[in-house]
Amino acid sequence: MVTAGTPIAVEDFYIGAIALHHDFTVITSNTKHFEKIQELEVINWKVGNRQK
Predict the structure, then answer these.
(1) Is the Cβ–Cβ distance between 43 and 30 less than 8 Å?
(2) Hey, which residues does 51 pair with through a beta bridge?
(3) What distance in Å separates the CA atoms of residue 2 and residue 10, rounded to the nearest whole number?
């Protein structure tokens, strides 16, 4: 992601990688950090919508 020009925090990268590995959904109010990880399902708990 860094080489693609879309870096994210290491902590968010780890959370996303673990969620992908275990086929989990990430539930957060800060979806912007995770939308850069392809195939990761994210739910904004404040809005209740899913992003993939």
Answers:
(1) no
(2) 42
(3) 11
The DSSP bridge partners found for residue 23 are: none
Structure tokens at 33: 């950090």
User: Do residues 37 and 20 lie in contact, with contact meaning Cβ atoms separated by under 8 Å?
Assistant: yes
DSSP string for 28-47: ES-GGGTTTSTT-EEEETTT
Strand order in the sheet with 25-28: 25-28, 41-44, 49-51
The phi, psi pair for 44, rounded to 5°, reads: -85, 110
What sign has the CA pseudo-torsion 38, 41, 44, 45?
negative
Structure confidence by residue, pLDDT tens digits, 10-49 = 999 999 999 999 999 999 998 988 988 989 999 999 886 6
